[in-house]
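Page 47, continued from p. 46.
Same chain as before, 198 aa.
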Amino acid sequence: MDAPIAVDCKSLVVTGLAFAGAVLALPLLLAGCESTATTGTIAPQAQNAIRPSGLSPRPAALAVTQMEGAPEPLKSQFMALFNADVAQDDVALTDSGAARYLARGYISAYPVDGGARLTYVWDIYDRAAHRAQRLNDEIALKGAGADPWSMVDAPALAALAQRSAGELAAYLSNTPEALAAAPQPAASPATLSYAPVK
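Result:
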């Protein structure tokens, strides 16, 4: 007769619990390995943006002479959104011959952990071809994919266009042209100074 085998019941309980936990956790681990197909925008990050002066930027007429970086049709879609947004912000877009300022724009997208970043840069030049200001900002995209441009959907493009148009309008509202065209406050009536009659 074989000798009885000693069994450590405590070890069996612990091992059984560990195995059961691993089985229960397996679907969660596998779910984490699936690729994310959906994309979307995360709220734009807070930046030290230029504050609007409260004046109209219209006197500082602008011409966009260049927009690079984004592939078609994203570039055309962005410019259509941007043109509509700056019009709402009272920016006067014109040709380079009549403009007081010239703008060169750049859009780029690059991958980061968990998604991508979509950025814009506007270089603003005066009539003497001196760069007067650089405006730039970015928004975060969530998603997965080897090509960061594949994560740029319509809401992301609209958010970037609106944000860049607002910052551009704020800058133009602080230019000398906008300040010079500001309505002057009405002069208050002169106050007569006299001694009381006794």
